Structure formats: C-alpha cells, structure tokens
Amino acid sequence: MKTFFGSRSRPGTGDSAGNVISMDRFRSGRTVSPLRQAEAYWAALRDGDGVPKRSDIDPRGLENILEYTFILERIAPGIARFRLAGSHLSEMAGMEVRGMPLTAFFTAGARSEIGATLEHVFDTPAIAEMTLNAERRFTAPRIEARMILLPLQSDFGDVSRALGIMISDGPLSTGGRRFEIAGSTLRDLPAAADTAKEQVSGPAETVGFAEPRTGFAGGKPQLRLVLPED
After folding, report:
1. Half-sphere exposure (CA, 13 Å, Cβ side) for 224?
2. DSSP 154
3. What are phi and psi of 97, to 5 degrees?
4. Which of 62, 83, 105 is nearest to 161 (CA)?
5. What value does the mean pLDDT take over residues 114-118?
6. Residue from 6, 63, 1, 73 nearest 34 by CA
7. 69-90: pLDDT as tens digits
C-alpha cells in the first residue's frame, strides 16, 4: 500500500521534506483517529486560507492510514468517483471500488444528501464529516462508520478533488454493506479576512500610507506670524 498514491521524488530530507509531513508530530502519547490525522495533514498543506492541490498529497505523509484513505474526482454535479482507494474501502464494498461513484456506498435514500454534501465541499469549499450506520440486515452484525471529505484543487486550479477517510468499527461481511447517514457536519473554510475581523478589538485604525495620529497635548493654542521674505 505504500505506492497507493504514486509518490514523486522531492528535494530535501527529513519529516518536512517536500510534502512529507510526519503524522508523529500530531500525536500526543495517545492514538489519534485516522480522520483527525488526515485533517491535520491536509491543514498542514494549506497555503494561507487556500485549498491544497491534489499533487501536494504524498502517500508517505499518510502511510499509517492509507488503507482508509481515498481520492475523489468530481465528474458531474453531485457525483464524484474514486480515483484511488485503500484496501479497507474495498473490504467494505466487497469489491474493488476504483472508478465507482461514492454514492455506491450509500442506500438509495441517502444518495441525494451525499450529492448535496459533495456540491458543498467542492463549491464552497468546505470540510464534511459524517457518522454512518450500515443498512440493517437480519443476520448481519451492526456496523458504524465515520467519513471525512477534505477539498483539493486539481492541476487546473478548480476545486474538483477531495481527500477522504472512511473507516468502520464493526466486522465486515462478504458482499459489501451500504450505509445510511446518522449525522453530518459541514465546516466552511475560514477566510483570512474573516479571521482578521475576529481579532480586531475597538475601532479600526487607518493603515497603509496614512501618517500616525498624534494626541492632543492640551493647553492654549498658539499663533505664529509668518512674514513674507524680502
């Protein structure tokens, strides 16, 4: 699985070489969920308030969660297909998922919500996080899953790719399972201007080429007579 994304050689060495950002730097002595690890990696690739590019993703930065990782490509409004996917997703589906639409993992009743979520992720752009329940079967065990979608830019600069994680916490049966949406959260990406507004307290100061303001010293005003030169 270490060639999952097809890595490219990059200059430099060490954890911060190129776009290889070690997941160890996000641990604090306890296990961090794959969703949080992927989001931390994605956030570390952002340039200011921008969206990372698909070409920025390096599998070495995600090597300990590759089995849960996937890349989506938007192919039509509300539809995105798997360009790459880890082994856990194939186990969940009971087949190879590359080339399949994301909606193949969901029940018919959940697909319209998934389509709307994808549009929000790509168009806003935004981060989507979902809690999923497998469709109930008489003999099948109960399965819950979590999924996160993180927007990415294509090589053309449009937001039409997404980095995702999908992980289940129950036993996987043969034949695959489809899921219903138990809960979802959409988080719009904060803009730099919005962050700056939150940090301002009191009246805004004029900046740029304006001269600094001086306080009034008090006392009586004084007049000075200026005579013309001879």
Report:
1. 2
2. -
3. -100, -10
4. 83
5. 97
6. 63
7. 999 999 999 999 999 999 999 9
Q: What values do phi and psi take at 160, rounded to 5?
A: -135, 15
**Is the separation of the CB atoms in 164 and 148 below 8 Å?**
yes
Q: Does residue 113 sit in helix, strand or coil?
A: helix
Q: Is residue 163 exposed (0-12), middle (13-18) or buried (19+ Cβ within 10 Å)?
A: buried
What are the residue ranges of helices labelled H in 82-223? 87-93, 111-123, 192-199
Q: What 3-state class would DSSP assign to 168?
A: strand
Dihedral sign of CA atoms 47, 53, 59, 64 in order: positive
pLDDT at 9: 37
Checking 41-44 for CB contacts under 8 A at 24+ apart, the result is 42/150, 42/163
- Per the CB < 8 A criterion, the answer to whether 147 and 127 are in contact is no
Question: What is the pLDDT, as a whole number, of residue 78?
Answer: 95
**pTM here?**
0.71
Positive or negative: CA dihedral 50, 55, 56, 57: positive
CA-wise closest residue to 70 among 55, 50, 87: 87
Q: Is the pLDDT of residue 226 over 80?
A: no
What is the per-residue burial (b if ≥16 Cβ within 10 Å, else e) of 11-31?
Answer: eeeeeeebbbbbbeeeeeeee
Q: Is 2 exposed, middle or buried (0-12, 13-18, 19+ CB in 10 A)?
A: exposed
DSSP 3-state assignment of 217?
A: coil
pLDDT higher than 50, residue 17: no
Residue 141: pLDDT over 80: no
